[in-house]
């Protein structure tokens, strides 16, 4: 009877939820055979082979059953449902596990569900079928293949596939990048993939858990193998993670094609044949050793080789293309973000950096990041600090990624030239390609008084023993894959060279024999990983030298590293079709010929070569100084390399090389390249001594030592290319002296905010001299500088707004470039108002029409030209200080007014709140940025973009006001005037709403709100634009409504009556003002009225 009752209870069938036989399953499955044995057997449980326990239920026992074999009670205990169809499968998978009324069955528990308060829930919130899975590899890769890549996966770091599903992060996305997070927040895709996080969230390979396993599958999440091992060629075979092609198993990889980045590129011996077959290049080093270098022609191929794929290229249709990071989209985004950066104020530049780089400490850009106390600890007899300007090299596309490169240098034109060259190389040649060898440094130990043959024998015989002993002193670096890798002996003979005499024999008791005329140098070749290497190399030498002396004897001399690191080289190159080399008014052929002739000059003459190489090191040293590197070591290594190794038969040579080559399509290509021995570090040394170094490394995306050296090589090459191009086409002085003029002005004592105008003055005089700058100063006694630091951070991605307006009164166009966060996660938006701007996407056109209306470049140019007429007639106006800045402020005010008017029309309530917030925030004098993210979170994009842009434009107005006006009273008055304009717009909307409800006020009171010409322009504009439409706010409509004559037909007569009514009030105000002004300002008043009448076509009989 007991069994019968249990059987009846368990016959409940549900087609929606799994059968809930949890208790029965617990009684039988995995339990020892006991008194309930018969009960479990009747339900369909199987006994293990040893007869001791009941086995758990598997899918094979329940699904795909033979005909007429009913779904057993054991299967239903587990959670399968009874279909009752009598077909091959009477057992079916439940349609769902989640339930608000039942606990979880064992099947659902195995699928990740949990019983919570007697309900079955998915704690991870990611449900696929009956599986409850975590956000990660399984959800984003396995279960999104036939659907779009979920937004949560994209936020986690996965990449949407062109067709469907998500793509995993590739090698370049993860390796040595700060994207491996230990927590659940952030971009965890690399960790999902199998990488591990090291210090600073830097991704690296999992050294503890390699892919090969005889007991665990490749997808065991507990040991972080997952997709990485499977993508690396390993296979899950019977629960084991195995390599089916063991000949090519290499650490974490099992490559059936035997062509991978690690397997080939990291080879220290001759490039394996399988790598050469795949497209890698077997490169012979200067010392006779070999390197396996990546291919250099992937862009020209119709089909990607295996080496190109390993390098990161992708087969797109019938073309081998660089990865998405170097797509047109990436170029457009980079270009729009940095366009006009050099014309921004310093405050605007820092603001933009804060938005792009989270947690960037901008205060150290102001003070240099080094305290006097810290400086005192760094050097002896410290009395202070000395500063250098820090700028940004822009537009550097290196291996498909864009870099913003910090450069510390006092020489003008260096940063501008490097940025210009980088942009040209990116646009015409696809950017720089770089490579580097292993970070091997050489440490030297000097011996004398030794026998040559015996010493060589002893060193060779004890080589491994010496290496093991040496590595005992550097276990940390050995654990990271470095340490002493080789020992070589070098014999130096006095007789081999003609040397200056030292007269050492004059020292008493000095006896020189033949053995003493030879020096024995023991060279330790040491892999220093991500350190520069000086300290660790010298430590190893001090530790190892006595040990070697015990083996070989002799007299021990000095122990020191060599800065000539010929085994630690970095290279960069670019290729540009000859037809795309045209620059300024010169053809591509002429530019290329000029550069090659200048390069040949340096090849033939060491005097020219030294200047040639100095230009290269202008760029390299600037990056080294900005990132805390030993620039003196870099200089010594490069110059020695130029003298001895570039071309030993030609003497001191240029470090760069230029040539004309042909590609596979027989097209002429201009190629520039550089390869230099360069020792830099991304860890240790002085990097921790200055906060600025940390900031600058963040700007460079935290490169390791090899990547940093490659960046420096690219900068040096770009710097040299720019110099040779300028020398051969227009001469170096034209561009150089324009920038040098800034230094002249500063040296003459010109305040920073007047430097640009001082330069203009010197150019007009034709004399860029200190005396000319001092003449300029005599006309100006202003000197003060106000800067309010703002450390608040904004989030990416950034949207931009760009305006470029031609101005006949200036030598250059007026440019306003705003970068800001409009709290839109999908993609940034880039709006612009330019003369030639016909290629905007429809989405951007719609956005423009919503926040600016139909007004575009023509309207803006017209209104600005009219306002340009309204100015004081001042003698020598061209020489006025900061004249260009005045024009920029005028343009900003027009944009702010236009924006505010249209945004109030779109959403008056939200716009009023934001404008008042901005005004109140300014009054608090807070150094923080106004955060609108919460307020605008759920608003449509036109409100997010428009109000965010409005806030940023007002902020930029304030910054430029600081640069232009040093008188606090005048500055505050101008700022208040801007908000009076905005407040008038707000009041207009409030008054209009009252009018529509017939709640009128005294019209004369309204006319007293504004000043004369604000009222005059409002009347002229509203009469000219008037139409019988109460949806449009209009002052003339208000006047008609107040008099209850809005529907009358004789509108022209009513317009004349309105002009007469308003004119009387205006004349009274006008006379009151003009009586207090001198003749110049009265003339200005008349000009203003004329401009207003002209702009809005006011007839002469319509008197105001």
UniProtKB/TrEMBL annotation:
The record describes its membrane topology as: Multi-pass membrane protein
Q: Name one Pfam family in it.
A: HMG-CoA_red
Localized where? Endoplasmic reticulum membrane
- What transmembrane ranges does the database entry give? none
Kindly state which keywords UniProt assigns to this record, in alphabetical order. Answer: Endoplasmic reticulum, Oxidoreductase, Signal
Q: What span is annotated as the signal peptide, if there is one?
A: 1-18
Checking CDD domains in the record gives: HMG-CoA_reductase_classII
Spell out the GO cellular component terms annotated for this protein, sorted alphabetically and separated by semicolons. endoplasmic reticulum membrane
Entry GO MF terms:
hydroxymethylglutaryl-CoA reductase (NADPH) activity
What does the record list as GO biological process? coenzyme A metabolic process
Q: Which PANTHER family match?
A: 3-HYDROXY-3-METHYLGLUTARYL-COENZYME A REDUCTASE
Q: Per the similarity annotation, which family is this?
A: Belongs to the HMG-CoA reductase family.
Q: What is this protein called?
A: 3-hydroxy-3-methylglutaryl coenzyme A reductase
Species this protein is from: Ichthyophthirius multifiliis (White spot disease agent)
Which classification does the entry list for the species?
A: Eukaryota, Sar, Alveolata, Ciliophora, Intramacronucleata
């Amino acid at each position: 009877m007991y069994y019968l009752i249990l059987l009846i209870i368990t016959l409940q069938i549900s087609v929606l939820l799994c059968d809930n036989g949890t208790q029965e399953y617990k009684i039988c499955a995995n339990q020892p055979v006991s008194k309930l044995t018969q009960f479990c057997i009747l339900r369909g449980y199987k006994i293990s082979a040893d007869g001791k326990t009941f086995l758990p239920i598997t899918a094979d026992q329940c699904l795909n059953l033979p005909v007429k074999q009913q779904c057993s009670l054991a299967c239903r205990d587990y959670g399968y449902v009874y279909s009752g169809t009598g077909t091959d499968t009477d057992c079916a998978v439940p349609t769902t596990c989640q339930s608000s009324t039942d606990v979880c069955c064992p099947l659902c528990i195995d699928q990740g569900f949990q019983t919570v308060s007697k309900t079955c829930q998915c704690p991870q919130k990611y449900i696929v079928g009956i599986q409850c899975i975590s956000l990660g590899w399984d959800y984003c890769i396995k279960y999104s293949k036939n659907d779009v890549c979920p937004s949560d996966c994209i936020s986690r770091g996965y990449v949407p596939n062109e067709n469907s599903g998500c793509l995993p992060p590739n090698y370049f996305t993860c390796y040595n990048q700060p994207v491996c997070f230990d927590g659940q927040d952030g971009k965890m895709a690399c960790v999902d993939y199998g990488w591990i996080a090291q210090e600073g969230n830097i991704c690296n390979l999992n050294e503890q858990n390699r892919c090969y396993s005889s007991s665990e599958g490749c997808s065991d999440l507990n040991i972080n193998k997952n997709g990485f091992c499977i993508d690396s060629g390993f296979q899950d075979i019977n629960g084991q993670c195995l390599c089916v092609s063991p000949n090519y198993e290499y650490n974490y990889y099992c490559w059936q094609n035997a062509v991978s980045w690690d397997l080939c590129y990291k080879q220290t011996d001759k490039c394996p044949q399988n790598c050469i077959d795949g497209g890698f290049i077997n490169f012979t080093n200067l010392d006779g050793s070999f390197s396996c270098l990546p291919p250099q022609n992937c862009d020209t191929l119709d089909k990607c080789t295996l080496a190109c794929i390993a390098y990161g290229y992708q087969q797109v249709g019938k073309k081998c293309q660089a990865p998405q990071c170097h797509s047109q989209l990436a170029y457009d985004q980079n270009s729009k973000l940095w366009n006009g950066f050099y014309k921004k104020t310093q405050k605007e530049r820092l603001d933009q950096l804060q938005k792009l780089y989270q947690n960037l400490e901008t205060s150290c850009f102001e003070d240099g990041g080094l305290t006097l106390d810290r400086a005192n600890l760094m050097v002896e007899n410290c009395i202070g600090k000395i500063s250098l300007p820090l700028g940004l090299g822009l537009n550097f596309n290196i291996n498909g990624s864009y870099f913003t490169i910090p450069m510390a240098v006092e020489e003008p034109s260096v940063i501008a030239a490097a940025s210009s060259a980088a942009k040209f190389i990116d646009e015409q040649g696809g950017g720089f390609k770089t490579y580097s060898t292993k970070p091997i440094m050489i440490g030297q130990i000097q011996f004398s008084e030794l026998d040559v043959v015996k010493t060589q024998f002893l060193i060779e015989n004890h080589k491994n023993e010496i290496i093991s002993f040496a590595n005992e002193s550097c276990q940390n670096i050995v654990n990271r894959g470095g340490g002493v890798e080789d020992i070589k002996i070098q014999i130096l003979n006095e007789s081999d060279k003609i040397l200056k005499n030292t007269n050492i024999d004059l020292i008493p008791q000095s006896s020189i024999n033949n053995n003493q005329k030879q020096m024995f140098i023991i060279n330790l070749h040491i892999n220093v990983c991500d350190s520069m290497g000086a300290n660790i190399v010298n430590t190893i030498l001090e530790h190892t030298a006595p040990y070697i002396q015990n083996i070989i004897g002799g007299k021990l001399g000095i122990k020191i590293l060599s800065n000539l690191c010929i085994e630690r080289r970095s290279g960069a190159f670019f290729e540009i079709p000859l037809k795309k080399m045209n620059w300024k008014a010169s053809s591509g052929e002429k530019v290329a010929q000029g550069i090659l002739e200048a390069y040949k000059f340096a090849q033939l003459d060491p005097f020219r070569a030294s200047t040639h190489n100095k230009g290269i090191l202008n760029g390299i040293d600037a990056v080294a100084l900005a990132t805390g590197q030993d620039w003196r070591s870099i200089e010594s290594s490069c110059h020695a390399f130029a003298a001895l190794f570039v071309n030993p038969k030609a003497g001191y040579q240029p470090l760069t090389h230029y040539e004309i080559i042909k590609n596979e399509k027989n097209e002429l290509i201009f190629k520039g390249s550089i390869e230099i021995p360069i020792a830099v570090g991304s860890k240790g040394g002085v990097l921790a001594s200055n906060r600025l170094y940390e900031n600058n490394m963040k700007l460079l995306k935290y490169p390791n030592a090899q990547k940093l050296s490659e960046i420096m090589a690219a900068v040096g090459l770009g710097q040299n290319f720019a110099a040779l191009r300028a020398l051969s086409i227009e001469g170096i002085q034209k561009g150089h002296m324009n920038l040098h003029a800034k230094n002249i002005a500063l040296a003459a004592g010109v305040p920073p905010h007047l430097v640009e105008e001082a330069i203009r003055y010197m150019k007009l005089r034709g004399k860029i001299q200190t005396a000319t700058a001092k003449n300029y100063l005599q006309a100006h006694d202003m000197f003060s500088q106000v800067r309010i630091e703002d450390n608040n951070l904004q989030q990416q991605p950034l949207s931009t707004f760009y305006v470029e307006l031609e101005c006949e009164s200036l030598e250059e166009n007026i440019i306003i470039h705003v970068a800001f966060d409009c709290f839109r996660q999908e993609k940034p938006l880039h709006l612009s108002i330019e003369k030639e701007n016909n290629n905007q996407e429809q989405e951007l056109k719609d956005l423009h029409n919503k926040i600016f209306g139909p007004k575009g470049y023509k309207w803006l140019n017209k209104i600005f030209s009219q306002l340009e007429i309204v100015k004081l007639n001042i003698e020598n106006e061209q020489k006025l200080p900061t004249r260009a800045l005045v024009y920029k402020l005028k343009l900003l005010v027009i944009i702010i007014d236009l924006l505010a008017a249209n945004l109030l029309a779109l959403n008056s309530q939200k716009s009023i709140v934001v404008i008042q917030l901005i005004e109140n925030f300014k009054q608090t004098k807070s150094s923080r940025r106004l955060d609108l993210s919460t307020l605008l979170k759920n608003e449509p994009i036109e409100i997010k973009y428009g109000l965010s842009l409005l806030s940023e434009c007002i902020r930029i107005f304030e910054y430029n006001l600081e640069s232009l006006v040093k008188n606090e009273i005048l500055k505050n008055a101008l700022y208040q005037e801007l908000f009076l304009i905005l407040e008038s717009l707000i009041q207009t909307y409030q008054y209009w709403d009252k009018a529509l409800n017939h709640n009128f006020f005294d019209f004369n009171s309204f006319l007293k709100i504004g000043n004369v010409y604000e009222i005059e322009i409002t009347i002229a504009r509203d009469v000219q634009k008037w139409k019988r439409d109460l949806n449009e706010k209009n002052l003339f409509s208000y006047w008609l409504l107040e008099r209850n004559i809005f529907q009358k037909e004789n509108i022209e007569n009513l317009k004349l009556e309105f002009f007469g009514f308003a004119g009387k009030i205006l004349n009274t105000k006008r006379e009151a003002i003009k009586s207090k002004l001198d003749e110049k300002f009265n003339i200005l008043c008349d000009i203003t009225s004329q401009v207003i009448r002209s702009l809005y076509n006011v007839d002469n009989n319509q008197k105001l």
